[in-house]
Design a protein that fits this description.
Blueprint: E1 4-7, E2 14-17, E3 56-58, E4 65-69, E5 97-102, H1 116-134, E6 141-148, E7 160-166, H2 171-187, H3 191-202, E8 206-209, E9 213-216, E10 227-231, H4 243-264, E11 269-274, E12 285-290, E13 303-306, H5 310-317
Parallel strand pairs: 2-13
Antiparallel strand pairs: 1-2, 3-4, 4-5, 5-7, 6-7, 6-11, 8-9, 9-10, 10-12, 11-12
Helix pairs in contact: 1-4
The structure holds zinc ion (2 copies).
Length: 320
């Protein structure tokens, strides 16, 4: 295929595909090194004194899961004062919440190696916590994400996810949301429900599908091997997922991340949750980005060069 500039499904994001430089999975093999041991890892059982006291710990003794405030939080639950300063120099006090979910007591286990039961428990705690923080008056948005590996910004090897609640609305979400709302106003349908239908017809970018979830490699993928995970039933906010969907999400993530691990070994990645208050135009989804390349100056402008077509990524990532 010749080079092509693709536009995102609904937003103004552009990606230049340059597949002649295509790489095979083995060219991307992860080179992450593990440096910590259970002795010096603050997330390991026996080292609880190295972290702030837990907000959630189940069960209390011999815990299976633990939610803690970040020891060095970017934001904290101080009194909210709103925006301060005048024009050009506006600022806020660092109000917000920054929490870490330690997903297993087992230091060596990777996320996709956890049992389905444990993954469901992780999702349940994330959903509960998300809901609690979302209800706080001064909180504008609750981000949920997972960084795995040093290249993806995780300073600790022990598998964990993060929840950061902010008094300000993230620009990337508002941009995507505006694009989705614009589509909705024109078509009177959720853009993502339409995207799911259109991609199912095309088939080439579908990675996997089960009763409740669909995984695809997006048409204008920013990253090589990027994937998006959608509930098939329209849900806009994370906590609208019911028990059955939670179970299927655990199954889907275990298989998807497991498939990546099969291709790339110990690879760095992000999982980002895209949730938005109940609406007809926003469709909850997760985005998975293996951190297989580093972006530079050109991407600063919001135009990306991707040497790997999503059709090719979908073919390699496909699982049942
Ligand atoms: Zn550990
Ligand atoms: Zn939808």
């Amino acid at each position: 295929m010749k080079n092509e500039i693709r536009k995102d499904y609904i937003s103004e994001k552009y990606v230049i595909f340059s597949p002649k430089r295509a790489k095979r999975p083995k060219d991307f093999k992860g080179k992450e090194e593990k440096t910590m041991t259970p002795e010096n890892c603050p997330f390991c059982p026996g080292n609880e004194h190295m972290t702030p006291p837990a907000l959630i710990q189940i069960p209390k003794k011999k815990w299976k899961i633990r939610l803690i405030p970040n020891k060095f939080p970017a934001l904290s639950g101080i009194k909210f004062k709103g925006e301060e300063g005048g024009s050009f120099f506006r600022h806020y006090k660092p109000y917000g919440y920054h929490e870490i979910l330690i997903e297993t007591p087992d230091h060596g286990k990777e996320y996709h190696e956890l049992s389905l039961e444990q993954l469901e428990l992780c999702l349940r705690i994330i959903i509960d916590r998300y809901k609690k923080l979302r209800k706080k008056k001064e909180i504008a948005y609750v981000t949920v994400f997972k960084n795995k590996g040093k290249m993806a910004g995780a300073s600790l090897d022990h598998t964990h996810s993060q929840i950061i609640a902010t008094p300000v609305f993230p620009r990337k979400i508002s941009q995507k949301m505006e694009a989705a709302e614009k589509y909705y106003q024109k078509e009177d349908r959720c853009p993502y429900c339409d995207i799911i239908r259109a991609e199912k017809n095309k088939k080439v970018r579908i990675i996997s599908e089960n009763r409740e979830f669909l995984v695809l490699a997006p048409y204008a993928s920013t990253w090589p091997y990027e994937s998006w995970v959608f509930p098939k039933k329209h849900v806009s906010e994370l906590y609208e997922l019911d028990k059955r969907q939670r179970k299927y999400l655990a199954i889907t993530l275990k298989k998807l991340i497991g498939k990546y691990a099969e291709l790339f070994g110990n690879f760095p990645y992000h999982i980002v949750y895209n949730s938005f208050p109940e609406s007809d135009f926003w469709h909850f989804h997760l985005e998975v980005f293996p951190k297989l390349k580093i972006y530079g100056g050109f991407e600063y402008y919001g135009v990306y060069v991707n040497e790997l077509l999503p059709e090719y990524a979908a073919r390699n990532l496909r699982f049942r």
